[in-house]
Amino acid sequence: MVGDARAKPERTAYMLTNEPEALHDPASGPPPRRFALPARMDLSAAEEMAEALEHLRGTPLVVDGTDVEQVSTLCLQLLAAARFQWRDDGVRFELGESSPALHEALELLDLLKVFQATEVLE
């Protein structure tokens, strides 16, 4: 069988949406964009993510990891590096909702604390 019409299509592109206006305080600057991670965060996803983050530098982001099923160390390193870059730039970058797979991977590599930092980046 070549393909199953019922199979969930794989999403590797990163989806961006605005945070709902009701959740945003206009005094804190521009509203953050929702940066949705794909289900498979592997080498090809890392390349796409690096390119997407390069273009989004300076944009407030809330990372949505609810769809993540598989994650590579390289992708986690990219997310951590982006978090530090956004912090240094004084721009909001936070991890929003995350799947059990993403949470476990961050925990195993002791990276949860990177995204749970108390610095206010707005």
What does this structure look like?
Residues 35-122 form the STAS domain. This protein has helices at residues 43-56, 73-89, 100-108, 112-115, and strands at residues 15-18, 33-36, 40-41, 61-65, 70-71, 93-98. With 122 residues, it is α/β, with parallel strands linked by helices. It has a domain at 33-115: 2-Layer Sandwich (Transcription Regulator spoIIAA). Residues 1-13 have low confidence and may be disordered.
- Output the helix-strand order: EEEHEEHEHH
* Second CATH tier, the architecture of one domain: 2-Layer Sandwich
Multimeric organization: single chain
According to CATH, the fold-level topology of one domain is Transcription Regulator spoIIAA
Superfamily (CATH H level) name of one domain: STAS domain
Helix content: 25-40%
Shape: globular
- Measured by DSSP, the beta-strand proportion falls in 15-25%
Number of strands: 6
Low-confidence stretches: 1-13
User: What's the alpha carbon Rg, rounded to whole Å?
Assistant: 15 Å
Structural class: alpha/beta
Main sheet: strands, sense, barrel: 4 strands, mixed
**Spatial order of the strands in the main sheet?**
1-2-4-6
Q: Kindly state the mean pLDDT as a whole number?
A: 81
| The CATH C-level class name of one domain | Alpha Beta
N-end to C-end Cα span: 51 Å
With helices defined by DSSP (H or I, 4 residues minimum), what is the helix count? 4
Pfam families: STAS_2
InterPro entries: MlaB-like_STAS, STAS_dom, STAS_dom_sf
Protein name: STAS domain-containing protein
